Fold:
Amino acid sequence: MLKYAAALIAAPLAVTASIPATAQQSPSASLNAISTHLRAMTTMTANFSQTDRSGQLLTGQLIIKQPGRIRFQYQKEANLLIVGDGKALTLIDYEVNQVQRWPIKNSPLGALLNPERDLSKYGRLIPTRNPDVLSVEVQDPKRPEYGIITMVFTKTAGAPGGLRLDGWVSLDSKNNRTSIRLTDQKFGVPVANSRFNWTDPRRNRRGRR
Structure:
């Protein structure tokens, strides 16, 4: 189970790769709009479905609190948790009592969890068929080992910066691809910092979450 989730954070929503483009706003304006959204999105909760390259599907709840905090609460059967505390991403597999950690900046998710990141330096707009859908691929050209993330946004009135994050695909340096799709997004909801705490199964063999 651990290796499937690791591709998510140690590493494009691949709905745009082969779609012909129509007239849209300029790439710089679109990147600015995405940056504005990420800065304005203080908190977000959503349901997620995660699919890896083998087709395995996992579901759960996603919680984001900027800057840097994220929680993937997987379905109970997965016995798995991913938490970002602002500095590091921690993957906890309660089935085998194993823990892995990565600096957020070394992960594709760094583009999502660092709202001050300059997308004009790292981002490339991907053409889409729908002018209301924006897709951006983010990669640090000096650190290809950090992987690639392609995020997909839909223009939505009332959402932070007028955009709604609908999902992303992360691709790590070994070409392990993981797709995340979001539903029931809610923005600006109260989220306590304690939601990003976790129980270390190496100390508590009962594996509580």
About this structure: The CA atoms of residues 142 and 186 lie 35 Å apart. The longest strand covers residues 177-187. The first helix runs from residue 2 to 9. The chain has one domain: 2-190.
